[in-house]
Amino acid sequence: MTFCLDIKGAGRCLGGREILRGIDLTLPEGEFLVLAGESGSGKTTLLRLIAGLDRADAGRISLNGALVDDAGRVFLPAEQRGLGMVFQDFALWPHLSCLENVTLALPPGTPKRNEAAMALLTRLRVEGVANRRPAQLSGGQQQRVGIARALACRPRLLLLDEPFSSLDLESRELLREELRESVREAGISAVLVSHDPEDCWKLADQVAVLEHGVIRQQGTPMSLWQRPSSPYIARFTGALGGIRVPVVSHGEAAAVEIGGHFLSPPGAAPRGEMARLFWRGDAIRPTPTGQGGIAAEAVKVSFEAGRFHIRWQLAGQELHLSGYSDRPVQPGPHNITVDPQGLFWFDVKGGCSRDWDTDSNVSHRCGGMGRGLHHHSGGGAFHRLGKGFAGRRRGGRGSGHPHGGGKFSADPHS
Ligand SMILES: Nc1ncnc2c1ncn2[C@@H]1O[C@H](COP(=O)(O)OP(=O)(O)OP(=O)(O)O)[C@@H](O)[C@H]1O
């Protein structure tokens, strides 16, 4: 398979801190990759390495089979990489019209340059402002012209850094569609940096999620939704919860106890006495007949975009859960079902979500030699991540699990 982008072991230190480490990322030709991750996770830094606006300290980067950066000997600068870029700091030429901005980007020798540029502006629905200067356009129009200009140089790979961030919801939706269609028609690949889950659902063939400078998970949007590998990714893909629950033994399996039912979420069990539990909103529902299931009281019911969001207080258990219902639910006692397939659990300390991982802001010092790292905290995120992965590979349910009687802790988000 030909990869338009192939990154192996890339790392980057900035200001004495290791911002990216061990980045492995491949993108097949013609695919759209959304690079997601919370603020400060290193998305822009990685995009700048791909673009050739910055150099890697470790690893190798190849574009369309050609090595462009090997953290030493080889470095092809941005202008020689043949990429299309829509970066916030790559503004349009202010003294030129939109048409001239796009015409200038066309490869030398392009016949009928004005017509070719006009066709791109029409594709992005900004042909009506072709003769205006950028300052006379709205933010959304400028972004459209920026994308037209990036496509004009006929790149095989288009790089975009949060191109929709300044747009309102409707313009964002429209431009997403235009971008997706333009990229597909041109038959090129794209890498788009975002922390908006909508970009993942609506644009991505592949999603790579950065957490604290490492790629935590890469896959199709559906695979991330089905099996998020961290609390951040669970939340990013729309899971509810994030509460701490005790892990208990149930026969051979490790489980969580919900209303007297022992439920084992898919995947390896967390290693500690407590787990961080998330769930899909559809996994927790009132029982269809009102009979059976788990006794719970609906303590808050709110209407949310065509369905009802319900906060449940379990009878006799200090536990709040929340879920959805298609039909209205009266506050008060009910019975609910919980589908274990819609639950996800994680190590309490192994995840990297800023919301609840109190020691996730441990910084990494750059080592003086290549990729050698000196972590000034033995309990730092690097060690926890490493242990987390190893634990998941090794750990089966009930494998030496210290099952304990910790307490549930309420989560303001659930
Ligand atoms: N030139 C620099 N010198 C020192 N630190 C830097 C430099 N550039 C970025 N950083 C740091 O690197 C980390 C990652 O920054 P980056 O801009 O790549 O994150 P990001 O995921 O794109 O964030 P956001 O979503 O907020 O744009 C941040 O902690 C940032 O402060």
Task: Describe the protein in words.
The chain is of the alpha+beta class and 414 residues long. The chain has 2 domains: 3-226, Rossmann fold, CATH 3.40.50; 231-394, no CATH class. It has helices spanning 43-51, 98-105, 113-123, 139-152, 169-186, 197-203, 221-226, 231-236, 381-394; strands spanning 3-14, 17-28, 32-36, 58-63, 66-69, 84-86, 157-161, 189-193, 206-211, 214-219, 240-246, 248-250, 253-258, 261-263, 274-279, 284-286, 294-304, 307-314, 320-325, 332-338, 343-347, 365-366, 373-374. The strands form 6 sheets. The chain has a 6-stranded mixed beta sheet, sandwiched between helices. β4 and β5 form a beta hairpin. The longest helix has 18 residues, at 169-186. The chain is globular. It starts with a strand and ends in a 20-residue tail after the last helix. Residues 350-364, 367-408 and 410-414 have low confidence and may be disordered. Adenosine-5'-triphosphate (ATP) binds at residues 14-15, 19, 37, 39-45, 195. Adenosine-5'-triphosphate (ATP) is lined by residues 14-15, 19, 37, 39-45, 195. Keywords: ATP-binding, Cell membrane, Ion transport, Iron, Iron transport, Membrane, Nucleotide-binding, Transport. GO terms for molecular function: ABC-type ferric iron transporter activity; ATP binding; ATP hydrolysis activity. Residues 389-414 are annotated as: Disordered. Residues 397-407 have a biased composition (Gly residues). Residues 5-237 form the ABC transporter domain.
